[in-house]
Amino acid sequence: MKKFLxxxxxxxxxxxxxxxxxxxxxxxxxxxxxxxxxxxxxxxFEKIIDKNDFNIMSQKEYNDxxxxxxxxxxxxxxxxxxxxxxxxxxxxxxTSSYLTEEEYERESKIQLYNNCTDSEAQACYxxxxxxxxxxxxxxxxxxxxxxxxxxxWLQNPNVKSADVIALRYTGNxxxxxxxxxxxxxxxxxxxxYYYNSSNANSxxxxxxxxxxxxxVDAGSSFKNYLFFNGYYSDANMMIYASYQHAKxxxxxxxxxxxxxxxxxxxxxxxxTNATTRSQYDAxxxxxxxxxxx
Length: 293
Prior knowledge:
With about 290 residues, the chain is α+β, with helices and mostly antiparallel strands.
């Protein structure tokens, strides 16, 4: 009898370990970079970050998202639609608007404004949609905060050139780190490109940061991310974010000729060359008070 009980206990112990491993695999996974990913975080941010992108996410990104998840956050976003009337291959008129999620869902299903795929059409419409989102999280005791700015292309852009993503703040901030990623698909494979704070495309100012991102020519399903970490002296300040898309070919060098100002595009990116400024779509930005986070 004792032997039977001992064997039974051993069997139950093995079963318990097996059950724990099954549960662990259901609640988390190890991605291609060796990062341990909790599915609670994947599910929390699935409207902003594609689940497949978690498979190639870096430890640094995941740590920042974990901070946001664990400390709570405030979110603000906007969907921007731009419609071009094209005649004989030339854009003759452009209109833009801001949509609610419901309006975008309705439009994207019926494809009213995308008929330039018709090779026989002399006049047609082409439309691009993108969603700009900012998440803000802070730890009041350490006065540390993280901002995550995401631009998601809901429909692939017609022009792929040097776009700019940037963040501006109104208070005194000590920058800890900032960096960006361009996520995209190429030949059906999920890829990303990393921009650290010392990258030639990155710029740091006394009132914020920005990164020029040259959209990959062969890419699709683009997502552009900017992460910012810093310490604030007073939470009574505003945080602004903007993403500006180049509507014609702009070199990375020209895209970097800007400062951060309330007079800038999206209330952030102030291109100092009038010609360069006119080449961007002037999408409105998003903003939020750090005090209210």
